[in-house]
Amino acid sequence: MRALLLLVALLVVLPSVASERCDARVATEKVALGTVHLAYQSIGRDSDPVLLLVMGLGGQLIHWPDEVVTRLCGQGFRVIRFDNRDVGLSSWAQAAPSANLAYEALRYRLGLSVAAPYSLRDMAGDALGLMDALGVSQFHVLGASMGGMIAQHLADLAPVRVQSLTLIMTSSGAQGLPSPSPELLALLGRREAPSREVALQQQADLLAALGSPAVSDDRELLLQQAEVAYDRAFNPEGVQRQLLAILAEPSRVALLNRLRVPTLVVHGTADPLLPVMHGVHVAAHVRGSELRLIPGLAHRFQDAFKEPLLAAVLPYLKAHRQEGRWARL
């Protein structure tokens, strides 16, 4: 009877402990990496394997949904999410972009070189510096969109330290892959706004355009999401600099060909920004990678696709977390 009571008590207590351990509402901290200061959050036990989340263009750490972070932590990870340079509460470059975005976008379309104040590899160096500052020797990486591009560089910079790589809705940057429409690119680059109200409407327009045609968005909800991000930090010039870093990036096919990190590629069949062949192309160039295509997924973490995304990602991360644990014993 005592054993039965103890088992019941454990079943009651353990979910509570896990919930407390994986509370995504932790304080945001900062770390100095030379001239760059990164804002980050760490969710989970310090002793757990680290899963580093790398966000996409203009995205802040809050754009990783709390419930997704909690589910990832619940797999036994210490989840670290951060603001890339030039967005959120991390360092913003002081000077406005010197390059003309429309002109550089045209050069990109023509296959010409593009000027950028920093590179995606520099941003990967930021992420690696964050791991150094936190004393993390090995870690798993999950990157979305531009964050997936940064993650590719991170795995190339530190192949022994990156234990697994999960790339969501991202690209190899190779020439010849399908391009987004000019209208979508215009929305992406339209960051100047004369007022807060206009900025919120612009962001809601962009979110709607990046969403799946299979899902009907609630405009008020989109505006609420835009409002939360705007009030935390609004730096349109920084987003332009990040976009220039993407446009200036050469093809990463050679980089992908030399990766030997376990890799999962996840892409949506309805992605309007990076059509599905971008994900297929990435997977084709990473030896031994796995590819998961999600029907209807576009270029946003929409509620309707959270479970399909988690169903694709969680078993893979769980398997590689276990492999990493046994490798350390």
TrEMBL record:
Keywords: Hydrolase, Signal. The keyword Thylakoid does not apply. Residues 1-18 form the signal peptide. It comes from the Bacteria. GO terms for molecular function: hydrolase activity. Pfam families: Abhydrolase_1. Residues 49-299 form the AB hydrolase-1 domain. PANTHER family: AB HYDROLASE-1 DOMAIN-CONTAINING PROTEIN, HYDROLASE, ALPHA/BETA FOLD FAMILY PROTEIN. This is Alpha/beta hydrolase.
